[in-house]
Structure formats: structure tokens, C-alpha cells
Amino acid sequence: MLLVRNIRLPLTCPAPEAEAAAQALRILRVPPERAARCGVAKLSVDARHGKPVLVYTIAVTLRDEGEEPALAGASPCVCFKQPPQFRFPRGQAPLAHRPVVVGLGPAGLFAALLLARSGYRPLVLERGPDLDRRVQAVQRFEAAGELDENANIQFGEGGAGTFSDGKLTTRIGDPLCAFVTGAFLDHGAPEDIAWRQKPHIGTDLLRGVIRAIRGEIESLGGEVRFQTALTGLHVQGGTLAGIETTAGPVACEQLILAVGHSARDTFSMLYRQGLPLECKPFSVGFRAEHLQQEIEKSLYHEAAGHPALPRGEYQLSQHVRDGRCVYTFCMCPGGTVCAAASEEGGVVTNGMSLHARDGRNANAAVVVSVDGRDFDGDPARAVAFQRRLEQAAFRAGGGGYRAPAETVGSFLEGRGKLDTLRVQPTYPRGVTPCDLGGLLPGELSAALREGLTAFGRKLAAYRAPDAVLTGLETRTSSPVRLLRDPAALQCTALRGLYPCGEGAGYAGGIMTAAVDGVRCAAALMAAHAPAPGD
Questions:
Q1: Integer Cα distance of 232 and 253 in angstroms
Q2: Per residue in 453-484, pLDDT tens?
Q3: Residue ranges matching CATH 3.30.70.2700 in the chain
């Protein structure tokens, strides 16, 4: 495959994809009849100079693929790329029991998918319900404030990423990203995730994709047991010998632990069993809501609203006092703020968008980094810190899982007011005016004010005093990491246990978690053959 990069076209181009493909063939000096395929590999928007331009990378496959390497030097913007080949070796020693995967978020889902495709018939344990029952539980909570601690935006089939924007953006550059993208496409994800610069599936479409992947796992001999949580590990001589669950003991010698960033009871169990947990950096703050049209005016200027442009997105960061960083995270164009609590008496916010991203507001987490120095290196204190903030937010909201909120202008001045004008909060349980700065340690509030002020110099929408801040955002990532060997990917203190994904501290977001799930499954497979059939 040949990639022809940096084909730049104005918004006024009437058929930009066709024109970009034609330009790619002209650059290669290849007549159309010699091309077997010529299509978009990547599309981005360059709006740095106030006049947005579409920037294409075109993938060209020739009918005679043997001719492709010689054309790689046709221009500095042309390169030859071979499609990745995925080979996952299998070990010789057969397992006594089928492998177990704990958690059916992105990491667990993709670990189980690779194991199932390779003949290992995994058993998957998920503490929450299947997706249909989970959606019903979330809807009940949003409508009536009835929280189910095992069926919410954090727990249940699909994990926390199910109620998000379905973002697949990543910076890891791992070839396994193509494996994950291919699996999403195989199960009904929108085709443009293969070439968008910032691919997303959307919360609504992602649900069907997750059901379809689980269906493949089950069709290949895998088993999924819902509403079954891990409660303990049996260890013999430093090796995993079995597990305890809420449904009873399970024979297990190889376990992929992909519990997600909010499984605090699991973290406590691991800590009690003496496994090596450490503090991991994470961040806290709130959700910032702006009018989506104001974001696009800030990004695209007079071209805002042009149908060829994607919904405006941004990512901002600012290093502030004491070496901390204030940054935006999980920006959801045309989305809503979610009620993401998973424990009684705590308020947690998150954000989500549907595939169309056609809501009135944009939202993003605005957060400040914290790390082991804030908790004396104690992972239990890091979890307790998150919990204290969530409980403070619950009290400030006045109960019923209402959330504390404040307009940006008020927050910067420390007034504790919610002077809503154009931007109406979307948090479903309702909001209560509050001094958000008073809910956080003073050092963190000061850092967030400094960061927001800097953001206003970078993006005009952040200078709007009536933008709304809703708090608190505390679940940006896991506060702990379960140490693992970097080569074998097994826990350094327990053979047979594979700490995996975001909850174990090795991923951040859907794509990186899914890739880590594939990587852990591949490591397990490289050491063991499947258990004999029943």
C-alpha cells in the first residue's frame, strides 16, 4: 500500500475526496486503471491560520502490488507501507483450566476476543449486568436518583467507555491499534474510524458494537457470567491457584485482571493480599460546558458551520505552579455531562456524546494533576482522596445526586455563583450553585484558576464568563498501579495474574485499554496452550 500525504484542499472544493484521490494518482504518476483501490487513509483539518484547510492522506493499492515499493520515492510525501500482520504464538504446555478474564470493559473485552479467536474458550466475569439491563439502571438513576452500585456508568458490560464519546484517539502508535480498529469495524463501527484524525464511534453506536463482540466471544466457546465480582485470590507458592467470586470459587491458574479504574473494593482486596500496589498519577477537577457553536467559532473563525468541517474539538494544557499541569480531557463535542457515581453518597461527573454530536453544548473535563507526593506514596490514601472529594460534592449538591456547579467567571473570582445565561447545564440530576474552589484543596483550586485563565488566551470560548463548570470530575484514571513484569506482563509477586488495562494502571482510554487487553492475552497464549476440551 502507498500512502500519499499532505494533500491540502480548500473547503470550497466541491468533491474533496475524489479530488484528493486524483491528486494522489497524479503525484504517483499512475493512471487510474492501474489502481485497485484509492481512498482516504486519514483526514484532518488545519485551522492554525484562521482559514481551515482539509488535509488528506490517500491510500493507494495497485493491481500489481509488486510495483508499489519502487513508487515510494515518487515524492517526499509518498511512502510504502505494508499492512500489519498479526501472529500470536501459542505455548506448548496446556492449561489445566480455561483462562479467566475479570472485567468486560475494553481491556477485558479485547483480551477475551483474542483468546476466543485462538481457541482458549475464556471465562469472563463481569460484576455488572449485560448492556440492556445496565442502560435501564443508568436511566433509572438519571430519572430518580436510584443508584445501583454494580450497574452504572462505571460498571457493567462495556465498562466506563460505553458511556462516553467512543473516542479511539491515541498517541501510543502500537501496531495493535490496527487490530482493535479492525475488530470494531468487523462488528459494526462506522467506517470512518479507519481514517478520521480523531475517530469516534459515539455512545449510541458503541453499545451495538460491544454486544456484537461479546456475541463472537460466546459463539467461539467463551462464556460471560454477569453480576459476578472477584472477591479473592488463592495463592500457592507465589502462583495463582484459584479465585473467589460472589458466585463461589472458580478454578483458575491464569487470570487477566481488567477491572477498570473504579473497582475500589478490588483494589482493597489486592492490597490486603499483599500484592504490590503503588500510587499512580491521576487528575481531578470538573466538567466545563460551552456552546458548541462558540467552540467552532474559536477554532474555525468565519468558516464555522461549513458542512465539510467536523464538529469542533480542542485539547488544552498549561503547566502551572509546583510542577502541576492543568489540562482538558475527554472533550465531547455536542455532548452532555453524565452522572457517573458508583458509590452511595458521592457525586461524580463525566461526559458523553452520541455519534451525531449534534447537542447544543460541548463539554470537557478541566483537571489538575495529582500524584504520589499528595498521598505520601500510599495508594489507599489516593483512593480515600477521591472518595472525600466525591462526598463533598454530594453534600454541596444538596443530596439526590445533584451536582455543584458554578459559572467560569464566578469561579475565577471565587464568588460561588451560577449566573447561567446562554449555557444551560446538561447534568441530568440537576445542579446547585456552589463555590467549587472550596471543594478542592486550595493549591488545586489555585492551579485550576491559573489554568483556566491561560486557556482563555488560547481559545476564545474559554473567555466566556457564562460557561458552566459542574463538579466534580475525579475518575480520570486509576489512582493505583498493580506492578507487573514488563516482558511477561504478569504481576511481579504472583505468577498467573496479568494486571491489565486502565484499572491496573497501564492504559488511559478505550484504544489503549483494548490494546493492553490484546497484549496481555497474547502474553498468556505465548506461555500456554489451551486447556483440553470438555
A1: 13
A2: 999 999 999 999 999 999 999 999 999 999 99
A3: 2-80
At the fourth CATH level, the homologous superfamily of domain 100-278+482-527 is FAD/NAD(P)-binding domain (3.50.50.60)
CATH architecture type of domain 2-80: 2-Layer Sandwich (3.30)
DSSP state of 504: T
Reported as a single tens digit per residue, the pLDDT across 322-348 is 889 999 999 999 999 999 999 999 999
Contact partners, residue 38, CB within 8 Å, separation at least 6: 21, 24, 25, 32, 58, 59, 60, 61
Q: Cell 500489519 appears where?
A: 84
Cell triple for 26: 497524479
Of 182, 86, 224, the closest CA to residue 522 belongs to: 86
**Residue ranges of the chain that CATH labels 3.50.50.60:** 100-278+482-527
Q: Which neighbouring-strand residues pair with 42?
A: 57
Output the CA–CA distances (angstroms, integers) from residue 534 to 98, 309, 496, in the order listed: 10, 55, 22
Q: List the grid coordinates of 256.
A: 487477566
Range with the poorest average pLDDT among 73-77, 159-163, 235-239, 348-352: 73-77
Q: Is 170 within 8 Å of 512 (Cβ atoms)? A: yes
Averaged pLDDT of the chain: 95
With a pLDDT cut of 90, the percent of the chain lying above it is: 88
Report strand pairing: 431-433 vs 403-407: parallel
Read off the pLDDT of residues 2-42 as tens digits, 9 standing for 90 and up: 999 999 999 999 999 999 999 999 999 999 999 999 999 99
Q: Which residues lie across from 47 on neighbouring strands?
A: none
Look at residue 533 and tell me whether its pLDDT is greater than 80.
no
Task: Kindly state the helix (H) or strand (E) to which residue 349 belongs, with its residue range.
Answer: strand 349-352
One-letter amino acid at 319 equals H
State which amino acid sits at residue 451: G
What strands, in cross-sheet order, belong to the sheet with 123-126?
Answer: 223-226, 123-126, 100-102, 255-257, 497-499
CA count, 13 A, side-chain hemisphere, 137: 22
